[in-house]
Write a structure and sequence with these properties.
Elements (H helix, E strand, L loop, with lengths): L1 E4 L2 E5 L9 H14 L3 E8 L4 E15 L2 E11 L7 E9 L4 E4 L5 E3 L12 H5 L2 H20 L4 H14 L8 H12 L3 H14 L4 H12 L5 H16 L21 E2 L3
Parallel strand pairs: 8-9
Antiparallel strand pairs: 1-2, 3-4, 4-5, 5-6, 6-7, 6-8
Helix pairs in contact: 1-3, 5-6, 6-7, 7-8
Length: 267
């Protein structure tokens, strides 16, 4: 399959790739979002490689500290060019500075993987007519709608809030400069990103894991692109998911071995 837009080839994809178009995704999820009371699209973007919809539910909120309010939400993302699965990920939105934190726990993914058709077998075209494939896609997006409807779950949101509260009590093991250096090595941050995070950490005057998470998500607001800003929001979630007993492990240790995996649903 060749993906083309405005006369330009965007991607060359194998016959295992399942087409999940951004337009079809929006047609499926936007009506569901509109049905959600007190939910708003906080931001959205179509980048060269991804579509993003970031939704916040203004009703479901909690305090991490006194006056530090966060709201529940979720992110829907998709790549038409084979650079990622269709994802629905929990989002925590901090009101005091309008930062978003994308949580790895409880995320759902659907993969762009379909049935491989043997082009040398003429009967394959009879087995999979356009109508059959259209119905299969319809069923697929109904499943996506169900996932979106369950994306804002109060119990899961409160578990994340509890983890944020725990993070306020976990002091950084190293001084701020060293902590940001370890962070930069682990997540391959650029020099500019390293400087932005360190600056935000000093401005926040919070040398806890919670302060570091907020420094990363605050730096996302001045990232070079929406795509990179979203990645920094995910990195904030990665830091939050680290086991309590670890505090920014040195780069030689694989902290991901201790992290919970994404929950996945096969296409």
């Amino acid at each position: 399959m060749i993906r083309v837009l405005d006369g330009n080839v965007r991607a060359f994809l194998s016959d295992r790739y399942r087409r999940l178009d951004n337009m079809e995704l929006c047609a499926a999820v936007l009506p569901v979002i509109n049905e959600m009371k007190n939910s708003v699209i906080e931001s959205c973007e179509v980048t060269p490689s991804h579509l993003y919809l970031k939704v916040v539910n203004r009703r479901l909120k909690a305090e991490v500290r006194v006056g530090d309010v966060v709201q529940a939400g979720f992110v829907v993302s998709n790549s038409e060019v084979g650079l990622g699965s269709l994802r629905v990920e929990p989002l925590v939105f901090r009101l005091v500075c309008k930062n978003g934190l994308i949580c790895k726990d409880f995320a759902q993914r659907k993969y762009h993987v379909g049935r491989q058709i043997n082009t040398s077998d003429d009967s394959a075209y009879e087995l999979y007519s356009e109508e059959t494939l259209a119905q299969d896609d319809k069923t697929f997006f109904i499943k996506v709608q169900d996932i979106v409807r369950c994306a804002v779950d109060e119990a899961k949101f409160m578990l994340t809030v509890d983890r944020l509260r725990e993070a306020t009590q976990i002091p950084l093991k190293h001084d701020p400069v060293k902590s940001v250096e370890l962070l930069a090595d682990k997540f391959q941050l650029t020099e500019n990103e390293r400087g932005d995070i360190l600056r935000q950490l000093f401005m926040g005057a919070d040398n806890s894991r919670y302060g570091l998470v907020n420094a990363v998500t605050a730096a996302s607001k001045i990232a070079k692109s929406y795509e990179r800003a979203t990645e920094l929001e995910r990195i904030g979630g990665e830091i939050l998911s680290l086991p309590i007993s670890h505090n920014l492990l040195p780069p030689t240790v694989n902290a991901y071995q201790s992290l919970p995996e994404y929950q996945t649903i096969s296409a």
